[in-house]
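User: Can you help me understand a structure? I only have the sequence.
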Amino acid sequence: MTAKILVVDDILSNVQLLEARLKAEYYAVIVAHDGKEAIDLVAKQQPDIILLNTMMPKINGFEVCKNLKSNLLITHIPIITVTALHNTHDRVKGTNTGADNFLTKPIDEIALSARIKSLTHLKIIIDELRLRERN
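Assistant: Let's start by predicting it. Here is the structure, written out as tokens:
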């Protein structure tokens, strides 16, 4: 199974770069250009992983993450926050809003690949457990 990854970023060049990297590894990619669009797409598309930029206008990535993690229907979807912020405070803030992992810009391809593979594996296990609970 190939994972469906939602890339959320307001900067087109960042989106294009991530999209190209992910498609090269045979992931299905969907894109949102702001926080509101991301929240709407997650409900409709049910991605396997979300790559979420933290610094966006209107609704920032921390607020989007908190919103998504508060929804019991989608709280199980892993979120990787992507940020240009390198200080510990922002990493803690991301964790406190429910982010499962983080990457700093510029994104290291090996770190990106490792985190996605790890969280994809975790998501498969979570989905299996959720399915068993329903039955």
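Now, to help you interpret it: The chain has a mean pLDDT of 92. The chain has five helices and five strands. Let me know which part you'd like to focus on.
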